[in-house]
Amino acid sequence: MMRPVQLRTLDEATQAPTDGFLADVIEGLSRPAKRLPSKYFYDARGSRLFEAICETPEYYLTRAEIEILGDHAMEMAAAVGPRRIIVEYGSGESIKTRLLLDHLDATAYVPVDVSREPLLAASAAIQTEYPKLKVLPLHADFTRPFNLPVGALGRSLVYFPGSTIGNFEPTEATALLRNIARAPGCEGALVGIDLVKSKRVLEAAYNDSDLVTAAFNLNLLHRINSELGGEFQPGRFSHRAVFNEAASRIEMYLVSKIDQVVGVGGRSFSFRAREAILTELSHKYTLDGFSDMSSSAGLTLTQAWTDDAARFAVVHLVRRAA
Ligand code: AVJ
Questions:
Q1: Does pLDDT of 102 surpass 90?
Q2: Distance 167 CA to ligand 1 centre (A)
Q3: Nearest CA residue ID for atom 10, ligand 1
Q4: 3-state secondary structure the chain
Q5: Are 303 and 79 in contact (CB under 8 A)?
């Protein structure tokens, strides 16, 4: 039997996570067009619901990305080169991380995540399965510039799977890519992106018939209630996800079923019937469009791998020589 591994996180997060959560909720609900940041979906229950989304027949993204890694991990390893530090944006809880680590000959693995517990659990599991790998979990918000305490260890590669980059507005996504391009020692990135396809297929993926995505969306209100003393009645909101073709993105909303007033953190917020809170953007790219965005951030798209049905892509971005 393998011995369980004890790991500690390297800490970049300076404030208590709840401080940021409450401030972000108040700020987002105070806007004329209300919104809540999608990064707060992933508490323990939200993470489980996301995993359940990946099992639904409609949500093809995860299966397509796993197919790509299964078919092309060796080519990716050849493109990346040996003995790199792999810095993963996200806690690396998935089969995708393992498919990559199995092929990449990495010297160290640094998962970066805002949620400490899932980060530690995932890192300990990886350390147990890969005893020779140096696993250094970093508790940090990768949406802001952060120090990578591994600069001295050698050259690194960012692994950013899942089309999580699609959650960001193009300007924010470009800034995030620019941070990757500027990080000391970083040579490039492997990024998973979801590709543009028919509105019907896209909207089905975010409106699964078992209502798992609806539960995932509504979980944000449960989380505000339990962690911030919010007084939402989640049954008074409904899930909506639509493909905005002009902006090439899925927009996910929580829609108020009635006129209502809800207290959060000593304040109250009013909602009109049918008023929508934007909870998530999920951009869908063309390879050319993503290549242009990467290029404006100082990264060159050198290779792209897709699944057989060309639903999803994993792209290799290389830092452009200055
Ligand atoms: C994990 C951010 C890639 O945008 O498709 C799944 C999250 N939201 N169903 C996505 C999500 C609704 C997912 N990402």
A1: yes
A2: 8
A3: 282
A4: CCCCCCCCCEECCCCCHHHHHHHHHHHHHHCCCCECCHHHHCCHHHHHHHHHHHHCCCCCHHHHHHHHHHHHHHHHHHHHCCCCEEEEEECCCCHHHHHHHHHHCCCEEEEEECCHHHHHHHHHHHHHHCCCCEECCEECCCCCCCCCCCHHHCCEEEEECCCHHHHCCHHHHHHHHHHHHHCCCEEEEEEEEEECCCHHHHHHHCCCCCCHHHHHHHHHHHHHHHHHCCCCCHHHEEEEEEEECCCCEEEEEEEECCCEEEEECCEEEEECCCCEEEEEEEECECHHHHHHHHHHCCEEEEEEEECCCCCEEEEEEEECCC
A5: yes
Between CA 187 and CA 180 the distance in angstroms is 9
Distance 61 CA to ligand 1 centre (A): 9
Residue nearest to atom 11 of ligand 1 (CA): 50
CA–CA–CA angle 304, 279, 247 (5° rounding): 50
> Of all atoms in ligand 1, which is nearest to the CA of residue 216?
12
Q: Report d(CA 249, CA 141) in Å as an integer.
A: 23
d(CA 135, CA 132): 9
- Ligand 1 centroid distance, CA of 72 (Å): 23
Torsion of CA 171, 176, 180, 184, to 10 degrees: 110
| Interval 79-93: pLDDT, tens | 999 989 999 998 777
Atom 13 of ligand 1, residue of closest alpha carbon: 164
Per residue in 234-282, pLDDT tens?
Answer: 999 999 999 999 999 999 999 999 999 999 989 999 999 999 999 999 9
Please identify, by atom number, the ligand 1 atom nearest to the C-alpha of residue 217: 12
What per-residue confidence (pLDDT) applies to 15? 46
Residue 215 CB-half CA count within 13 A: 14
Q: What distance in Å separates the CA atoms of residue 62 and residue 136, rounded to the nearest whole number?
A: 25
Q: What is the distance in A from the centroid of ligand 1 to the CA of 279?
A: 11
